[in-house]
Amino acid sequence: MRNFNRSLWLETTPITNYETFRGELKTDVAVIGAGIVGITTAYLLKKAGLRVTLLESNRICEGNTANTTAKITSLHDVFYTKITENYGKDSAAQYGLANEKAIQKIREIIEENKIDCDFKEQINVIYTLLEENLPMLHEEVRVARSLGLPARFIEESSLPFDIKGGVCFDNQAQFHPRKYLLALAEKIEGGDCHIFENSRVVDLENEDKGYKVITKEGTVYASNVVVATHFPIFDRYGLYFAKMHAERSYALGITAPDFPLDGMYKSYENPARSFRTQEANGNQYIILGGEGHRTGEKEDTQECYNNLFEYAKVIYDGKFDLHFKWSAQDMMPLDDIPYIGQYGKSTEGLYVATGFKKWGMSSSMVAAMIITDEIMGKINEHRDIFSARRFELAPSIMELGGNVKEATKNIIAARLNNTTKTLEDLKLGEGTHIIYKGEKVGAYKDEEGRVYIVDIVCKHLGCELHFNDAEKSWDCPCHGSRYTIRGEIIEAPTTEPIKLIQL
Ligand SMILES: Cc1cc2nc3c(=O)[nH]c(=O)nc-3n(C[C@H](O)[C@H](O)[C@H](O)COP(=O)(O)OP(=O)(O)OC[C@H]3O[C@@H](n4cnc5c(N)ncnc54)[C@H](O)[C@@H]3O)c2cc1C
Ligand code: FES
Fold first, then answer.
1. Ligand 2 pocket residue status of 325, Cβ below 6 Å
2. CATH code (residue 360)
3. Is the peptide bond between 493 and the residue preceding it cis, with omega within 30 degrees of 0?
4. What separation in Å is there between the alpha carbon of 329 and the centre of ligand 2?
5. Residue 480 CA: which ligand 2 atom is closest?
6. Domain co-membership, 142 together with 79
7. What are 42-68's pLDDT values in tens digits?
8. What is the extent of the structural domain holding 77?
9. Which ligand lies nearest the alpha carbon of 245?
10. Per the structure, how many domains does the chain have?
11. What is the pLDDT of residue 1?
């Protein structure tokens, strides 16, 4: 298999070049992080007449949003039966209708701004290959319809194999996420609104009437702050480290002209298999996704790509070409409902949007609409079901996710010299824990024999990092921070790099 880990979205759009933030600036709202949440929220806030400053640590829209599969849908797995049981019919309807409104809002923004982003109306389907799952899927259709959602049951599809049945939502959509978001970003920049790249936020201080947002090279004074960093970066509020964990999954971009596909699909069964199409470079690509696992828990991540490739061989009878492969991660909340709204108990004017459980295209618009309303002093009718503070009254519930237990295990592991490997044992292309000068460290030897040694303790809350073989990165199983082989930050919540140890 060819070894190139860059998404179709990144490969078919230009790189951006916004300035780095230096000095001081006053603004109404500072938005931290420019993925789909940050860019969408900044856009709506500007439309509402506010001064907005968007601060991105890297380049805009090069994080998880650049590595998504970008299905825009309110069918988030088989979920409406569960949310109705857990929270009641009203809350379930709020969830579904908020996401349906979000899809409509994306449509309107694209039309209003004439954004050429390959937006296409589609069905979205969760299908099963097993007879025994049919009653569950029928029930999901019944519940979803009773909530006013566009659900129906299907027995056939354009997938290259027979399905037993599926939950199908009509009037859903797909797009090219970077084409959409780079165009929105152009609408944000200008007048009293700014986008800054390479401007990592490292701290936040309370001010009399607002917040001081501190970057590497400057300070933004803002009445309101939106934390859109995927995993929220400020640990002293909100307890997000106990309320979420990160899960990675993988995608291949292939062509298989003998097997035309129409619609968007995901399997009900695990390992998950996801399908959609995308036109680019004169080709009709099929994006095949799946193989999710907790970030940092699996070292042989190359196996995930290999499994998808082998699966493609079977279903396309070997008649396909591989053009792209990429991976990303998303945040999994305790009850499968995103955390949107005020960041913590005592943080008026500080907002968060996270925990999209791999359904962030519509959920990010839900978040942008709720947060914009909050800042403008309006009550959004859908806000309660998404409240980011819903577990604050019952901290014991947070234990259910096992996130605290997992963190404790990994913090202890980081302090044990539980390997006998040394530098001499390291093979070409291998990354692992070794003992170096009496300390456990992380070491990677590239194919040319160059060795990179890093501190193995995550700078976020001190968990032990694990090597990610496919992406050549050091990943944290606790909350999903990721670092390069040289220790630079790839992924929040960390705001500090790990030390590269000189040989
Ligand atoms: C494989 C995969 C497939 C998916 N497919 C779908 C799909 O089909 N449909 C769907 O709805 N959802 C899907 N999702 C989910 C969706 O992609 C995500 O929920 C969404 O992209 C998250 O957007 P975000 O803006 O929160 O994060 P990101 O896009 O990661 O943006 C966060 C930004 O914050 C920046 N940042 C971090 N720390 C700082 C700091 N300290 N200072 C400044 N900036 C900072 C980062 O650099 C980054 O640019 C998928 C997820 C995965 C993993
Ligand atoms: S991401 Fe939290 S400890 Fe590493």
1. no
2. 3.50.50.60
3. yes
4. 14
5. 1
6. yes
7. 999 999 999 999 999 999 999 999 999
8. 71-173+244-328
9. 2
10. 3
11. 44
